[in-house]
Amino acid sequence: MTAKSFTPAKDDALSSLSGTTLDVRAHHCAGLAAYSLGLYSESKAHFDSALKLNPQDLKTQRELIRATTRIHEQTTGDYDFASMIQAVRSGTIHLDHAKYSGSIEVRSAGTHGRGLFSTDFIKKGSLILCEKAFCLPDLYGEDKAEGVVLYNFNSSSRTQRMAQAGLFLRLRERLFGGPRTGQEEQFWDLDAGGYVRSGMEGKIVDGVPVVDSYVSLIFIYSPVDDLTSL
């Protein structure tokens, strides 16, 4: 859990179940891991199991409320946008909310790649989609990628802003832990259809996750920091 390897953390917690009252800790950990993966219904089920073994566990009670709130957001699209805006204004950028997609689905748009299609009549003023950014650049986090420029020799182009290079670095780090965090497939599902994968790409080579960066060569230049720090 500390290493944010949520899928193995959940598997380990569930494999430790013994059928005794000691399972309360395992269910709690499995619930936290499932919550971090966005599996809120599964998370709630684990917290329910933990509370059956120890109804007085305050930590699990709080986590159950969080999971139940996320499920409500996920199924109804009911958000407290005013408090969300206030949280961002106060400096919080990682908001704890579920994603929501109403009467829409992702499918092929023929020669135009993949797109969003309505599956029902959309009323005026209704919420269709509420989505969180998959990744944020270091520029908005604790570590700033100051002075970093990213060059793409395939297109003879370069980033114009530090945040663009910072986003690439952060995204690569996040995908590098993909098999452990359970977020790799979530990222590839964002593809608009312009980059076709065969489905045969390797995920682990020599015990190390494979990150497909789309380009043959990336050069990172930092006039401020030593490249070894990157």
Polypeptide structure, described:
- The chain has helices at about 5-15, 25-35, 40-55, 60-75, 80-90, 160-175, 180, 185-190; strands spanning about 100, 105-110, 115-120, 130, 150, 155-160, 205, 210, 220.
- It is of the alpha+beta class and about 230 residues long.
- Strands 6-5-9 form a three-stranded antiparallel sheet, with helices on one face. Strands 1-4 form a two-stranded antiparallel sheet.
- The protein is globular and about 60 Å long.
Question: Could you write a compact summary of the structure shown?
Answer:
Helix 2 packs antiparallel against helix 3 and helix 3 packs antiparallel against helix 4. It is globular, with a radius of gyration of 21 Å.
What attributes characterize this protein structure?
8 helices; disordered C terminus; alpha+beta; two-stranded antiparallel sheet; three-stranded antiparallel β-sheet; globular; 230 residues; single chain
Mean pLDDT: 80
Low-confidence stretches: 215-222, 224-230
Strand content: 5-15%
Per DSSP, the total helix count is 8
Order of the strands making up the biggest sheet: 6-5-9
- Give Rg in angstroms: 21 Å
Main sheet record = 3 strands, antiparallel
The structure class reads: alpha+beta
Number of strands: 9
Q: Which helices and strands occur, and which strands form pairs?
A:
Blueprint: H1 6-15, H2 23-36, H3 40-53, H4 58-76, H5 81-89, E1 100-101, E2 104-108, E3 114-118, E4 129-130, E5 149-152, E6 157-158, H6 162-176, H7 178-181, H8 184-188, E7 204-205, E8 208-209, E9 218-221
Antiparallel strand pairs: 1-4, 2-3, 5-6, 5-9, 7-8
